[in-house]
Amino acid sequence: MVVVGNQWGDEGKGKVVDWLTDQAHGVVRFQGGHNAGHTLVINGQKTALQLIPSGVMRPGVACYIGNGVVVDPSHLQLEIGRLEAAGVDVCSRLHISESCPLVLPSHVALDVAREARRESCGVGKIGTTGKGIGPAYEDKVARRAVRAQDLKHPQRLAEKLRETLDLHNFMLRAYLHADEVPFASTYARLLELAGLVTPMLADVGDLIYKCHVRGERLLFEGAQGTLLDIDHGTYPFVTSSNCVAGNAAAGSGIGPGYLDYVLGITKAYTTRVGSGPFPSELPIDVPGTVGHHLHTVGQERGTVTGRPRRCGWLDTAALKRANIINSTSGQCITKLDVLDGLAEIRMCVGYRLDGKVIDILPLDADDIARCEPMYESMPGWTQSTAGVTRWDALPQAARNYLDRIAELSGTPIAMVSTGPDREHTIVLQHPFGV
Ligand code: IMP
Predict the structure, then answer these.
(1) 233 CA to middle of ligand 1, Å?
(2) Predicted local confidence at residue 221, as pLDDT
């Protein structure tokens, strides 16, 4: 099964993946890096994961980092250290593809300096997480990435690192007027981290194929969201990887024919971090308004950067595109309880653009920015839905809202999440068919 975000990320994938892994043997990350922030709440205790698959909180579940993920070994050390200090066994269950490109300190320096340059040139920042993700993917595509497998060969590592750093430092110095990243300390640190990483390196594609042959259930955990996809998102205000379900195959090394169910995670309203167009956006800083309600009640602040998330009504015309691209089998609607108490609930169902009415999100970010949202309105509900675990215990108005989402976005609702804890979940159709 593949789990992907249907919006601009932060849909609550971590909680759903953690819940589903009760029935899974393994969880596989296939794209992104530690720009992701997956928050899990288990027995009231919060855990934030960035690079390590969300299955790690279930003892005995194997975790895989596929070739499509860019790995910052320094961050990996930090995240493993935090989890192991909390008593979670990580190293014996984590398998990292040898082909993963590494995120180096110079990628971080380039990411940060480039954002500063965009801002000072008046081009406008992308609003990246500043973790070096974009520059690391650039090196992968340019065929000069230092990869996880190089950590096993100190001589080769030195050669590749020197070549890559030469280029990075040229860009940092001459073009971005920023500090260079020294070779000696970077190399020494990588050698130190190699001791931690190399025992976990594996042929992930082969391992997960064998799981498949044994009939084990695997869950492919997407990061970010469909509208942040490098090809299908609101380019250039996107992340640097393919976040859509199709990339679960290429990003992990399994054939697409072995993937079955696609679960799209859809927040009951919309949020976005960073720059870029957002047709159904509402102001978040005026107390008493819906935008302020979504921001405060939904605690909409970035897990990785702490930035306030932009908030707005659900956009079913954007969702329609996501459900088509992902061939979504079912949707899990999250954070329904955040809408409790709103007298009226709106949905953006299409846009007016250049005098025409359209019912699917356009591809061009400039067109999206000019779209005038068209809304449909529904009555809200006064009762609390927080923690509800049965469909028939939801207020009728909430059920009507969910039914209308399914109808407009073209994909049935399989699950509803009514709170951060594992138990706060309604299941209509279990994605694993159990
Ligand atoms: P990058 O992935 O750091 O290059 O950032 C590119 C864009 O993707 C920015 O708008 C980020 O805010 C956004 N982004 C990256 N990761 C996440 C995520 O996990 N959730 C939400 N937005 C993200």
Answers:
(1) 12
(2) 97
C-alpha distances out from residue 249 to 13, 61, 139, 261, 423, Å: 19, 20, 21, 13, 30
The answer, yes or no, to whether any atom of ligand 1 lies below 6 A from the CB of 127, is yes
- Cα separation, 420 vs 355, in Å, equals 42
Residue in the block written with tokens 């028939």:
392
Cα angle 220-217-240, degrees, rounded to a multiple of 5: 5
Mean pLDDT of the chain: 96
pLDDT of residue 300: 96
Residue having the nearest C-alpha atom to atom 23 of ligand 1: 224
Look at residue 43 and tell me whether its pLDDT is greater than 80.
no
Name all domains of the chain by residue range, CATH numbers in brackets: 2-24+224-427 (3.90.170.10), 105-200 (1.10.300.10)
Catalytic annotation, pick one of 38, 95, 293, 424: 38
Is residue 18 flagged as an active site residue?
A: no
Whether the Cβ atoms of residue 42 and residue 422 lie closer than 8 Å to each other: yes
What secondary structure letter does DSSP report for 172? I
Distance (Å) from CA 115 to ligand 1 centroid = 13
Query: What type of residue is 348?
Result: C
Determine the average pLDDT of the residues in 115-136: 94
- Does the annotation count 10 as an active-site position? yes
Q: What is the pLDDT of residue 72?
A: 98
Cis upstream peptide for 287 (omega within 30°): no
Tokens of 246: 């199709």
pLDDT digits 0-9 by tens, 127-159? 999 999 999 999 999 999 999 999 999 999 999
Site of tokens 């480039």: 114
d(CA 16, CA 425): 9
Q: What is the pLDDT of residues 407-433, one digit of tens each?
A: 999 999 999 999 988 899 999 999 998
**Distance from Cα 382 to the centre of ligand 1, integer Å:** 34
Q: Is the pLDDT of residue 41 over 90?
A: no
